[in-house]
Design goal:
2 domains, alpha/beta, globular, Rossmann fold, 5-stranded parallel β-sheet
């Protein structure tokens, strides 16, 4: 059976879409592992996926900001934004990378799919392609339609539907 490792930053808006993707892959006969925060174990298991918990700085709980941005009160403006990005997405990279390396080594993983903010799989890319599984990025953000009045048509994608819309309909 083909095994897929999904990797998600432990934020509900990242884990939810990858859990849905994983459940669909499972229905199509894939063995699916999801590496994310420990707080998501129940929902990942309920979807029929193999849950693997992150550890250290990578295993935080967004419901409790003190677990990942403990000194946010020291910052304002852009400095606060930078601090939040560093603490949420950069500081966890070593712990994420260790978990990815362990799982790829312990399981026969045929492909690694990560959400766009999970950078812990990047070290795999330093390994020659013939010695590691493919690493793919998965977008978890909703598609945003950009419309310019000079466009003659626009494409709207929603669910499984793709339709062309006349500009007058968007005005």
């Amino acid at each position: 059976m083909t095994a897929i490792l999904l990797c998600a930053t432990p934020l509900a808006g990242h884990v939810g879409p990858l859990t849905t993707l994983g459940a669909d892959l499972r229905r199509h006969g894939y063995e699916v592992h999801l590496l994310t925060g420990s707080r998501f174990a129940t929902s990942v298991d309920a979807a029929g996926l193999h849950h693997h918990s992150l550890s250290g700085a990578a295993d935080f709980d967004e419901r409790d900001p003190s677990t990942f941005v403990p000194h946010a009160d020291r910052y304002t403006g852009l400095a606060l934004s930078r601090y939040q990005v560093e603490q949420t997405f950069v500081r966890p990279i070593p712990d994420q990378a260790a978990a990815v390396e362990r799982l790829v080594g312990d399981h026969h993983v045929d492909a690694v799919l990560t959400d766009g903010t999970f950078a812990g799989a990047l070290p795999l890319l330093s390994v020659p392609a013939h010695r590691r599984p493919p690493v793919l990025g998965v977008g978890v953000m909703p598609l945003v339609l950009v419309y310019d009045r000079s466009m003659t048509t626009a494409v709207c994608i929603g669910g499984n539907d793709v339709s062309w819309v006349e500009p007058a309909a968007l005005a």
